[in-house]
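Budget justification note: compute hours in this period were largely spent on complex prediction jobs such as the one shown. Inputs:
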Amino acid sequence: DTGVSQDPRHKITKRGQNVTFRCDPISEHNRLYWYRQTLGQGPEFLTYFQNEAQLEKSRLLSDRFSAERPKGSFSTLEIQRTEQGDSAMYLCASSPGLAYTDTQYFGPGTRLTVL
Amino acid sequence: EDQVTQSPEALRLQEGESSSLNCSYTVSGLRGLFWYRQDPGKGPEFLFTLYSAGEEKEKERLKATLTKKESFLHITAPKPEDSATYLCAVQASPRSNDYKLSFGAGTTVTVRA
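Corresponding output:
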């Protein structure tokens, strides 16, 4: 079990550019989550997938954000026309998908800096 | 809306000086309360899940407890390697497909040798 992996670990971009992040969940985990964390705060939920279906999106997820999980495996999070306020750590988590409650395991995160 | 408040914001301890962190929560219905540890620049690392009032779980020098309104993380005889930010999160149950975690801002613990 290699854990959740994220790529890249760090991304520096200029305002207005598009960026895409990738997350590879723990194998056989059905649920995949994206969170955003700013300095001094806890992670904030963005969206989650049950297999390939995107089941919930936060109000924080503006139209500039889009996420996909083709074939229920890895996931990508794209931010279009980045703004300085998008600078944050983007965390991915996966869970086995148990019926009632199940534990989410986090990846190392992608640190985004928008200049 | 689910609310999670952690206190204190920061805690400085001497090695061996036991203490407790508090997590108070307001949810429509609790599926589970989670504790994570986060080191600087890294993702949260899972510690415990608590499901019902009165439940307790232990791992090495850490012990988590749960009541109907709050959870405590007790650190017994801490060592410098216990220095980290400890995050509390709740998973509520207003809908059957709602599994998102709502986090508090965390308590940053520093243990001095």
